[in-house]
Amino acid sequence: MSRIVTVAxxxxxxxxxxxxxxxxxxxMIALMEAAAAQGADFxxxxxxxxxTFFPRWYHEDRAAADHWFESRMPGPETQxxxxxxxxxxxxxxxxxxxxxxxxxxxxxxxxxxRSGRIAGKYRKVHLPGHVELDPExxxxxxxxxxxxxxxxxxxxxxxxxxxxxxxxxxxxxxxETYRVMGLQGVELVVLGYNTPSANSQSPxxxxxxRLFHHRLSVQAGAYQNSTWVVAVAKAGDEDGHHLxxxxxxxxxxxxxxxxxxxxxxxxxxHACDLDETRFGKATIFDFAxxxxxxxxxxxxERTGVxxxxxxxxxx
Length: 315
Ligand code: CDT
Fold this sequence. Notes:
With 315 residues, this protein is of the alpha/beta class. It has a single domain (11-301), classed as Carbon-nitrogen hydrolase (Nitrilase/N-carbamoyl-D-aminoacid amidohydrolase), CATH 3.60.110.10. The chain is built from 8 helices and 14 strands. The chain has helices spanning 21-37, 79-88, 143-146, 175-182, 207-225, 278-282, 287-290, 297-301, and strands at residues 4-11, 42-44, 91-99, 105-112, 118-123, 156-159, 162-168, 188-193, 228-233, 236-238, 241-243, 248-250, 256-259, 266-273. The strands form 3 sheets. It has a 6-stranded mixed β-sheet with strand order 5-4-3-2-1-14. α1 runs parallel beside α2 (79-88) and α4 (175-182) runs parallel beside α5 (207-225). The chain is globular and about 70 Å long. The model has no long low-confidence stretch (mean pLDDT 97). The structure holds 4-methylsulfanyl-2-ureido-butyric acid (CDT).
């Protein structure tokens, strides 16, 4: 028996500040056509897929950043993407900056089914960066200025015949992200990212180091929860700032089954057999048999590091 979802990880090359939504959507449609030609039935695009990674730009007046946000989904500029997906019978997921009717701002992603219906929404929980302009940094990372933390948790949806969840960029570095979905039986996690190739606070860190941490996080999340993970970059030189590539698909045993080796628009297609998740979930990561929640209290009681709990024996 097998349950195959043929996934296309649709990497976007750089999007410049001056590029219009229409230009980007045309590129996304071209990727979708390439994915369909390779037999994909689910295409996954990066975080904030419709624009440049704008949190690198400081606006003293936060409202001046609102033009980067979508107040309707689909809206007039994104409708052609939904139309093409429906025409091709392609499920999709992509990230965008969401401005709600109440005026709230989130870094969001959606699952869209083959009929063009939005089946699920996720709002990024782990927002990296800072709130105020930091002149010490070579580049700003102002996600904490422009977004509020997601308020929807980490839901998993019945989608494409399996159990599918979403995460966004920095979320992939946190084991809690995957475990909360793992506890819902997740079989496929899709996530997009925009990751600067340099760490402005750690000049000795190389791009290779940063790609290592990316792979380490995604592979660990996949293995420890016995799930497929599809991680999709926006890559290359955006507005004079470089984002690394490394778009990849990790199997439920943690191994990478494919990775793009460039920083341009391109698709990585893989037939993911969701039944490959079963072995790990029934053996070493059979949570019901092996987890010991009585010892995990600190994970939700503490946010930051506190005093050690160890005492001398007999005390
Ligand atoms: N977009 C995003 O979340 N990027 C972060 C960069 C961290 S450096 C402030 C990431 O974790 O890849």
